[in-house]
Amino acid sequence: MKIAMLGHKQIPSREGGVEIVVEELATGMVERGHSVTCYNRKSKRVRGQKKNRVREYEGIKIQEVFTINRKGIAAMTSSLIASIKAGFGRFQLVHIHAEGPAFFCFIPHLLGKKVIVTIHGLDWNRAKWGGFAKWYIKAGEKNAVKFADEMIVLSEGLKEYFLKEYGREVTFIPNGVRRPIHREISEIEKYGLKKDGYILYLGRIVPEKGEDYLVKAFRELATDKKLVIAGGISDSDAYSQKLKKLANGDDRIVFTGFVEGRVLEELYSNALIYCLPSELEGMPLSLLEALSYGNCCVVSDIAECTEVVGDKAVVFRKSDVDDLKDKLSDLLENREKIERYRKDAADYVCNKYIWDDVVERTLRLYEKVL
User: Fold this and answer.
1) pLDDT at 233
2) What is the pLDDT of residue 147?
3) Residue ranges, the chain, pLDDT below 50
4) Can you say whether residue 257 is alpha, beta or left, with left for phi > 0 and alpha for psi between -120 and 50 degrees?
């Protein structure tokens, strides 16, 4: 098959979950003999683009598309150009990722291409977006329902949402994870971190991730452990500044900024607890990764998290600072509970969420459409 993918910022990259999914799908499909072209955003707002700029990666053809380098417009312009190029390209199928880019799914559809749209989450509901952006993203959702030949969602909750809201049947295909290599502390010594000496949050710094609840809860804990907030800013400078003000005066709280490579691996490998306090998710890849490292995880009780962890993690009430504080305090005071959650976490998640299975299920959906 000849496949085009768009909606991500760039690959190779760990900019966000969409980028990881696109890279895993595309490389897996190329390994199975298919031709995949990915349309990367050409923009200074894409982290590390200059050093990573390539025309081919792991057999994937890379094309950069024109992008207006302005907040709120970059994704729109790159998705428009990519949709036009994919529509006129020699592809059998165009796979669009996320609701915003799906706004233009009618273009390849009208040009005779089969269209798949993956909904990674209800992006219009994110706090960082203003009125026009919310309308545009919601319109992308509606266009996906109307024009896509098939839709993929990452959780059972999203599957129920589309059936209830639009009467549209969609296909649930979760994300995957790989068994990682554990790293001893080396690079993260610069943050003053020791093995089992910190609670870790790793993800984008945006309001719907709930990092402010975690900072507030942590500040009330009587512990010598540190709290590490690791992640890049995504159109949310004001929220990042809010977090730093909340943490002001508490030298136990460490902000690393965006991390990747060895630093990322060391942070996962040596954390005492991983915490994801999100109010809104699609299917959190950072949670899958934290479990794959055998971490004791604490997550909010939203369905997108509880579906992933089952009984292999501690769950607290979403947005409830006191409940989060109590759950963290209980774990810190009862080390045997941490070890009990650690024991089964890696095998559980690595045996349940497998990228090769995700690729095969996606290809079967392609074949059905074609």
Assistant:
1) 77
2) 98
3) 47-52
4) left
Chain segment 284-307, per-residue pLDDT in tens: 999 999 999 999 999 999 989 999
Whether the predicted model's global pTM rises above the 0.85 cut: yes
Give every CB contact of residue 241 below 8 A, 6+ residues apart in sequence. none
Instruction: Report the distance separating Cα 212 and Cα 253, nearest Å.
Output: 12
CB 279 within 8 A of CB 302: yes
The single residue listed with the structure tokens 């190329």 is: 30
Instruction: Write the CA distances from 315 to 14, 185, 306, 308, 365, integer angstroms.
Output: 27, 28, 8, 12, 34
pLDDT number for residue 127: 62
Q: What is the per-residue pLDDT for 50?
A: 47
The pLDDT score that the predictor gives to residue 234 is 65
SS (H, E, C) the chain: CEEEEECCCCCCCCCCHHHHHHHHHHHHHHHCCCEEEEEEECCCCCCCHHHHCCCEECCEEEEEECCCCCCCCHHHHHHHHHHHHHHHCCCCEEEEECCCHHHHCHHHHHCCCEEEEEECCCHHHCCCCCHHHHHHHHHHHHHHHHHCCEEEECCHHHHHHHHHHHCCCCEECCCCECCCCCCCCCHHHHHCCCCCCEEEEECCECHHHCHHHHHHHHHCCCCCCEEEEECCECCCHHHHHHHHHHHCCCCCEEEEECCCHHHHHHHHHHCCEEEECCCCCCCCHHHHHHHHCCCEEEEECCHHHHHHHCCCCEEECCCCHHHHHHHHHHHHHCHHHHHHHHHHHHHHHHHHCEHHHHHHHHHHHHHHHC
Tokens encoding 110: 């009208």
Place of tokens 């098939």: 150
The whole-number pLDDT of residue 209 equals: 92
